[in-house]
Amino acid sequence: MAHDLRDDLELVGGDYYFDDDDDFDDGFQTGSGGSSGLQHEQMDDTSASDYKEGKDIQGIPWERLNYSRDQYRKMRLKEYKNYQNLTRSRSGLEQECKQVERKDAFYDFQSSTRAVKSTIVHFQLRNLLWATSKHDVYLVQNYSVMHWSPLLQRGREVLNVAGQLTPTENVKGAGRLSRVQVSTMALEDNLMVAGGFQGELICKYIDKPGVAFCTNLSGNNNSITNAVDIYRAPNGATRVTAANNDCVVRTFDTERYSLLTQFTFPWSVNNTSVCPDGKLMAVLGDSSDCLLTDSQSGKEIARLQGHLDYSFASAWHPDGHVLATGNQDATCRLWDVRNLSESLAVLPGRIGAVRGLRFSPDGRVRRRRAGAGPVRGGGRRRVQPRRGGSVRERRRPDLRRRAGVPAAPVVRVPRLVLLLRCLGLADRRAGL
Description:
mainly beta; four-stranded antiparallel sheet; 7 helices; 32% strand; globular; disordered C terminus
């Protein structure tokens, strides 16, 4: 039973599912050369009514294949071997993981379309697909960032990086860029920030023409921009951070795009995230440790230990007390930043590394209706951890007090929604 789903799909015929070519025929008219029509004859979208009648969400004709979807999923989970950077023993990891309740539904299926294909050239790339609302999806497609409207069933190009980019803001450090291959991005309100494979950083306001700011952060060909983040500083100002393979985290303002801080770490940085009050920054990278630092001075406040491999993702609960970290060891750990002697909980992923994490805006599970969006950008899964009781306060220094953040008297594991983006290659292609 161990063979690729792609082989079965090629046998039944039809241009429905996979495309490994660099030139995608995606239904978008782009500056880098795209198609001008939505190929519904080939794409064959799935609606909510189709799904209720038994049609597969992605339109895969399981009835014509050798195995059912459930059978193939079981094979995939059984045979998948997670990539490892550190060959540490994982014998006790399963016992440490909490059981995950799967009885609740966090969203209802509305529709899916294969008319929109995002371009993810490496399985370790993250945040190349963003849904800023249920009606707005942003995705990277070759040398373009596209916006897809599920309501209008129409896409438009937001940013084209195939040619030369010239910043509209005449500020220190800005420079021209050309033919940027986007490696990561982030969106907040109207601001979009993108990073590139050669260490590029691009800032653009979606409602304005041109690029506000762009630069090459280091000039080092090995300094890929692994992650970018947009956050509010304690004074309310908007800040942009870039984490790179050159082991440096840089922070810019969004008024004059001045370089405010530049912190160097002993390993390549894969991810940063700043707590809601803007005072603490989580820094994760090619290390099994996660560092909690002061966002303004870069001073290390605490070192979180427990993961067995490199880390790729983090997210803060809206109350600023709980941090979630995602790792190559296929787990997500929850930490109470007021007491870091051990993690609050360890949540298992289903397959592959945990490369993306999100909390719901209020930190609680909410029943949401999912808008139609691209299905080619990597699967997302919502899981609900068990609700935890209070955690006894231990007699040790309050680490948040060092950063001037008041502590609350009681700690509870919050009800939350974690989006675990597990990018196994076959799963990313087939959406399994």
